[in-house]
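Question (not urgent): is this output format expected?
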Amino acid sequence: MKLNTPSERFFVFMATVMLFGVGYQHYFNYQTDKRINNEMEKQNILVGRYCARNHQLGKENTGLKIEMVKLKSEIEELEKIKRMWLGKRPKYAPNGDRSFPTNK
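Got this back:
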């Protein structure tokens, strides 16, 4: 192929530049995608760990809430027993002798 005129040379030069530009853009996009995918894989592993830990802590929290409800009910029962015993406390003799309680 013979390039006689400057315009033909210019068009061949522009075609070559455009071809290399498109090729470089594809290469650049491929490298960027590869980098992004690697970082996403790393982050997915970390997120998986965080989700597993969050799930574990949620189970522990639920268990602790159940224990807290049980302890509250036990404390309420003890308070009832305490009020019952304090309400039926033996009364002592009016002469001040505390060794012989009397129930009035």
